[in-house]
Amino acid sequence: MPVLITAEELRALLPDVTLLDVRWALGGPPGIDAYRAGHLPGAVFVDLDTELAAPPSATAGRHPLPDPADLQAAARRWGVREGRPVVAYDDTGNLSAARAWWLLRWGGVADVRLLDGGLGAWGGELATGDEHATPGDITLRPGRMPTLELDDVAAFARDATLLDARAAERFRGSVEPIDPRAGHIPGAVSAPTTENLDAEGRFLPAEDLRTRFVALGVGEHTGVYCGSGVTAAHEIAALEIAGYRAALYPGSFSQWSNRPDLPVAMS
């Protein structure tokens, strides 16, 4: 199933599609305010912090994977139904919407796509206020996307390719705005996810993405992490567009850096 959908393709599907507005920014402001000011007609707001993640902790990270039962209940509130396409978007090149894409794919929903270019690509009339979907009937079957557990990460980084999707300065350890230690997981390769996008917030063509990932050493076995498992999902979407399947390390650096017994590298 394709990862992306264009605005023109989306219009051809309406109204037989579930639209998810997943606007979010690290440190705020809350995405709900921007949603209420203007969103795709029929789209429901998805709260990344409370609906796409379990409560944060030092042991599990800032955005642990949600409990499957909680995710299924949320998906039904959004109107996700068996056999009905789902399209997620945001206003930052799908950097946060990709979390919903990955989680629903992880839960076994086959037809989940990202609106390429996000809200800025829509070019049509917007709705305001809140919208509530007719409850859905989806049954999630978790585990359909590969993941890495904390205990597996160090060996994986030695034997395969582990991409760090954060900004390059966070990888180097020159800045760290939120996690307790700066740097990166030893053996990881810097691969800022923003470099998967063009100036308009659309994903680069598949061939260009493939060229980028080959240069980074991507092959049959690839894992991805970021700060808390959000932008890493975006990297996995880009990898899938390029023809690669990659595992997500959900705890990411927010979990790793909270373990003083685990090493961090600086470069």
Describe this structure as you would to a colleague:
By secondary structure, the chain is of the alpha/beta class. The protein folds into two domains: 4-121, Oxidized Rhodanese, domain 1 (3-Layer(aba) Sandwich); 150-256, Oxidized Rhodanese, domain 1. It contains ten helices and nine strands. The chain has helices spanning 7-13, 31-37, 48-51, 68-78, 97-106, 150-159, 168-172, 206-215, 231-241, 252-256; strands at residues 4-5, 18-21, 44-45, 86-89, 112-115, 161-164, 189-190, 222-225, 247-248. The strands form two sheets. A five-stranded parallel beta sheet has the order 1-5-4-2-3. Strands 7-6-8-9 form a four-stranded parallel beta sheet, sandwiched between helices. It is globular, with a radius of gyration of 18 Å. 46% of the residues are buried.
| DSSP summary: helix tally | 10
Strand order of the largest sheet: 1-5-4-2-3
The N- and C-terminal alpha carbons lie at a distance of 38 Å
Overall average pLDDT: 97
CATH architecture of the largest domain: 3-Layer(aba) Sandwich
Percent of residues in helices comes to: 25-40%
Major sheet? 5 strands, parallel
The coarse silhouette is globular
Strand percentage, roughly? 5-15%
Supply the helix-strand structural class: alpha/beta
Which fold does the CATH topology of the largest domain refer to? Oxidized Rhodanese, domain 1
Low-confidence segments: none
What name goes with the CATH superfamily of the largest domain? Rhodanese-like domain
Count of β-strands: 9
Secondary-structure element order, as H and E? EHEHEHHEHEHEHEHEHEH
Radius of gyration: 18 Å
Counting structural domains, the number is 2
